[in-house]
Amino acid sequence: MRGMPEENSNERYDLNVSFFVFLLGFLVMISLSLIYNGIMSLEQPYTISGLVSLGLGALGLLLAGYNLIKLQNRLSAVGRVPSGPVVITRQRCRSCNNEVTRPFKEGDYIYGNGDVCTKCGNAEPMLVTSIFLQKPPKKRGP
Q1: In a domain, 127, yes or no
Q2: Number of domains present in the structure of the chain
Q3: CA-CA distances (angstroms) from residue 41 to 1, 14, 33?
Q4: CB-hemisphere CA count at 13 Å for 26?
Q5: What is the pLDDT of residue 10?
Q6: Is residue 139 part of a domain?
Q7: Could you tell me if 103 and 87 are in contact, meaning their C-beta atoms sit under 8 angstroms apart?
Q8: Any idea what DSSP says for residue 81?
Q9: Of 46, 77, 108, which closes a domain?
Q10: Distance CA 101, CA 91 (A)
Q11: At how many degrees (to 10) do helices 6-41 and 49-77 cross?
Q12: Which of 32, 82, 109, 125 has its CA 20 to 30 A from that of 90?
């Protein structure tokens, strides 16, 4: 979140996850009570309410299970490095023509000023010559 310290946003995220898990637990409890009421209603002849209760309870359990799986996938992805293409900046020294590639930094633009040359130590910043996507290497199967 903008303007918010990192610690506050992590606490807020933990609170949101806890509240979501609480709501899923509540949904499971309601679903189980609907299933129980549906089973008890089926003993009476000619009642459709038992079938409706069973159906709603089963639907609630399926919904809770689906959301738990989605939550687990989202939490396991936290901190994982994205495996997609990486944006690369290529820059060239104006005096020694040394070319360097590095990960893109916000504010880079073509023909803009880059970093200081590490080869010749020229005080003039390097020239950004290109910005492109570098695709990750393809994994070969066994």
Answers
A1: yes
A2: 2
A3: 50, 40, 12
A4: 6
A5: 56
A6: no
A7: yes
A8: P
A9: 77
A10: 6
A11: 160
A12: 82
